[in-house]
Amino acid sequence: MGTTNYWLIIVLVCTLTNSVKSKSSWFQIDDEDGILSVPDLIRKYGYQVEDHAVTTEDGYELTMFRILPKQPPDTSKLPVLMVHGLLGSSSDFIIIGPNNSLAYLLSDNGHEVWLANARGTRYSKKHSTLSLDSKKYWDFSWHEIGFYDLPAMIDYIINATKVKQVNYVGFSQGTTSYFVMTSTRPRYNDKIALMVALSPAVFLKRVRSPLILAAVPLFGGFKKIMDWQKVYEILPHNALYNVLAGSICSFGNPKGICPHMIGKIAGPHPESYDKKVITAYAGHFPAGASVKQLAHYIQIIRSGFFRRYNNGKEGNVRAYASEEPPIYNLTASSAPVLIYYGLNDWVVHPLDVREFAKALPRVVAAKPVEDKKFNHLDFILGKDVRSMVYDEVITMLKGFK
Q1: How far apart are CA 54 and CA 155, in angstroms?
Q2: How far apart are CA 356 and CA 306, in angstroms?
């Protein structure tokens, strides 16, 4: 029996078993949600969705998904650009289904919703001249996502909708890249009515995750090995792997292997997990990233500074005319920012968020989530995220038109 057939049998058995075991859910979702594409998933739940192609200044071809309001659009409400986290995709904002996912809730409330897919992820893996297999294609971090991808998407939305500003919702890396954009290309502040930062991964001095902390001193050697092997992409989306991972994650109780691993990274909160959501999310995550994206985060953790990529002294002199990489000028990020953070977030520490908020010139509010166990991934997967965060976000957006 071939290896492929062997794995297909395992997946089939796991999927069939999963369909028996996963009969109930906190959310209005199905077992198949992990194997549907984002557009198919959106259509499944009765929403109209469009694919939009956007090309950046440096030639990366990106895909955005536009969700149209179910009711006639409220012209007084601005479109909302939603930007996912590291190794995530546009699925971050729809995976917990209707009446719970923020993208659907915004659409229900009359907003046009635009779901981003950053370069190198499952839905944005094209370039006008570079091959996907080339080192040069993958020579980017979240800096380039902020400097090129976000401006291209914002300009596209403004041109398509004939508005002057958009609202912005970012989760984790979606916040990192935003503050790259507004500090390095400050004119884009004028194009943002309100930025909603969910667990802003900007200051990372006090990371508590033991898995991340263990990886920090090892990552330099890991990157050298990856470079030697000419591997520049990490954890790309793979349909077979994702289905298998989703099936494995569906078994057991909330204290099983997948919730345990999530807890070791994001912060322990097993009672917040729904096994159908974990199964569905595993079907979409990971969605791919460059090794350099992870390396840049490791640098931020090690240095304690929110700054550009460190190429080494000689490389920095060539790139920046300085032996040290420049620190991002957060005082230039002048658009209003609303921050939500978790007290049990093991990636983004509450003290780092409070310090970060003081560095910004225009913070509407920096709000800890009321549930003291709320962790990093609860912002997109948590059972109570709608009542704890999303409903208030929708209310706050009404004041920024």
Answers
A1: 10
A2: 10
Q: Which two tokens stand for residue 375?
A: 């962790």
> What are the tens digits of pLDDT across the range 111-121?
999 999 999 99
Please name which of 219, 230, 111, 209 lies closest in space to residue 168, comparing C-alpha atoms. Answer: 111
Residues 6+ apart with CB under 8 A from 12: none
367 vs 355: CA distance, rounded Å: 13
Q: Which two tokens stand for residue 341?
A: 């953070």
pLDDT of 6 over the 70 cut: no
Residue with tokens 């198919």: 40
Q: Give catalytic residue positions.
A: 172, 376
Element (H, E) at 366: strand 363-368
Per residue in 354-383, is it b (16+ CB within 10 Å) or e — as a string? Answer: eebbebbeebeebebbebebbbbbbbbbbb
Backbone torsions φ then ψ of 358, nearest 5 degrees:
-70, -20
Say how far apart CA 189 and CA 41 lie, in whole Å: 33
pLDDT tens digits, residue range 212-253? 999 999 988 989 999 999 999 999 999 888 777 777 776 555
Question: Which H or E run contains 115?
Answer: strand 113-115
CA angle 306, 133, 122 (to 5 degrees): 65
∠ CA 350-143-169, rounded to 5°: 55
Tokens of 100: 């719970």
- The amino acid present at 288, given as its one-letter code, is G
Do residues 297 and 86 make contact, with C-beta atoms less than 8 angstroms apart? Answer: yes
Q: Whole-prediction pTM value?
A: 0.93
Distance CA 353, CA 16 (A): 44
In the numeric block, the tokens 């469009």 are attached to 50
- Span 292-318, pLDDT tens digits: 999 999 999 999 999 999 999 999 999
State yes or no: pLDDT of 11 exceeds 90: no
| Per-residue model confidence (pLDDT) at position 26 | 79
How far apart are alpha carbons 189 and 336 in whole angstroms? 9
What pLDDT, on a 0 to 100 scale, did the predictor assign at position 251? 52
Largest CA distance in the chain: 63
Backbone φ and ψ for 210, nearest 5 degrees, come out as -65, -30
Residue with tokens 């991340």: 212
Tokens of 206: 């006090």
Identify the pLDDT of residue 72.
73
